[in-house]
């Protein structure tokens, strides 16, 4: 009898240990290059660049099996500049992502922490900007729709569904952590559907800020949006949809996004490439982006990609510049973990009564002209 009880007890211990299996993975990506630009403040420049295609990062990702299809998960992801070793995302230790949560095989995942919004999660993969096929320089002007991940959100609760025969959906709510509950909060939702070679997606993002209180410009501020803002505005609404289709080695897609601003002040210096930023001339402003893109696997090692984006904008006061942005990229895989790339980007500003100049995302400064060209040669290594 005693032997039977001992065997039963040991069996229970081993079963518990099996359910409690856990794993932690260290991962990362390093992207370094040399970029030529035709004009920055009116002068041609050469500069070392970090994260031209994908932002350099390293992180820890872990999971613990809790049994019954449930597991605990976490991600801590740091962003950095490979050229000087500085921390990214306003010197945050884990500025790209930092969250913990529970994931169920049946019901999806709930996570808490600093995270991406639903426009980034569902719609952005259909665009070339912000992905391995277009990179950061190809961002829609000023990254007005956040497809290039200029903003991550603090204090965020996120729900992500499981895959229901190709259909996925989710949403986020980012707390202000303030007695002014609605000041500096954000929320989003999105969905995607995949069937054979067809992919469709849509997303919506809204942020709220008291523009009379610019504390959210500092990374130490407690609100949802802190330190890495794109626009100074009381409210930002971004929505859009996209579709792409894969046939053989090629994928072609269309993406539309619109960003509407109210109580609009201007564009941050980081995004506008000027010392004091770019101001708006009215209480509201708007951007509309129309992107067509293509990706083609020439061989298993060589890929080609290109995109054209037409952006209509309204800065108020009769200032309505239109932006034409072209991005081309070729990539050669030296191995599964290392590749080299050549990338070219061009932006032209038309209908420009307000003197807004071209500014390709990620460069040091605006062109000072209506056109700007950037050519980058670089390499990426994953670990």
TrEMBL record:
Keyword NADP: no
Cited InterPro entries: Gram-neg_bact_OMP (IPR050298), Gram_neg_porin_domain (IPR033900), Porin_dom_sf (IPR023614), Porin_Gram-ve (IPR001702), Porin_Neis (IPR002299)
Compartments where located: Cell outer membrane
Recorded topology in the membrane: Multi-pass membrane protein
UniProt keyword list: Cell outer membrane, Ion transport, Membrane, Porin, Signal, Transmembrane, Transmembrane beta strand, Transport
Transmembrane segments: none
GO terms, biological process: monoatomic ion transmembrane transport
Gene3D superfamilies named among the record's database cross-references: Porin
Superkingdom: Bacteria
GO molecular function, one term: porin activity
GO cellular component terms attached to this protein's record: cell outer membrane; pore complex
Domain spans labelled Porin: 8-346
Residues spanning the signal sequence: 1-20
Protein name: GBP family porin
Organism: Paraburkholderia eburnea
């Amino acid at each position: 009898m005693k032997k039977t009880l001992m065997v039963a007890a040991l069996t229970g211990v081993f079963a518990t240990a099996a359910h409690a299996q856990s794993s932690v993975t260290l991962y990362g990506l390093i992207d370094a290059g040399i970029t030529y630009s035709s004009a920055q403040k009116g002068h041609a420049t050469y500069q070392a660049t970090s994260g031209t295609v994908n932002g350099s990062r390293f992180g820890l990702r872990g999971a613990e099996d809790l049994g019954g299809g449930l597991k605990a998960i976490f991600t801590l992801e740091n962003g950095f500049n490979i050229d000087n070793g500085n921390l990214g995302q306003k010197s945050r230790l884990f500025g790209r992502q930092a969250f913990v949560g529970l994931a169920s095989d049946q019901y999806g995942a709930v996570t808490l922490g600093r995270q991406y919004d639903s426009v980034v999660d569902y719609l952005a993969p259909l665009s070339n900007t912000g992905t391995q096929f277009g990179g950061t320089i190809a961002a829609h002007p000023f990254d007005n729709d956040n497809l290039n991940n200029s903003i991550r959100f603090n204090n965020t609760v996120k729900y992500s569904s499981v895959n229901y025969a190709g259909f996925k959906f989710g949403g986020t709510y980012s707390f202000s952590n303030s007695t002014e509950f609605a000041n500096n909060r954000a929320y989003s939702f999105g969905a995607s559907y995949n069937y054979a070679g067809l992919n469709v997606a849509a997303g919506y993002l809204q942020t709220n800020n008291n523009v009379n209180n610019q504390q959210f410009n500092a990374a130490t501020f407690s609100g949802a949006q802190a330190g890495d803002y794109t626009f100074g505005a009381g409210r930002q609404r971004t929505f859009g949809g996209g579709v792409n289709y894969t046939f053989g080695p090629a994928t072609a897609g269309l993406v539309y996004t619109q960003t509407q601003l109210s109580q609009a002040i201007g564009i941050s210096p980081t995004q506008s490439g000027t010392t004091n930023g770019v101001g708006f001339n009215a209480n509201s402003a708007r951007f509309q982006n129309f992107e067509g893109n293509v990706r083609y696997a020439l061989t298993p090692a060589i890929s080609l990609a290109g995109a054209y984006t037409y952006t209509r904008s309204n800065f108020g006061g009769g200032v309505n510049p239109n932006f034409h942005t072209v991005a081309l990229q070729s990539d050669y895989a030296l191995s599964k973990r290392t590749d080299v790339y050549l990338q070219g980007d061009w932006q032209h500003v038309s209908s420009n009564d307000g003197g807004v100049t071209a500014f390709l995302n990620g460069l040091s400064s605006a062109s000072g002209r209506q056109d700007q060209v950037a050519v980058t040669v670089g390499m990426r290594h994953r670990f």
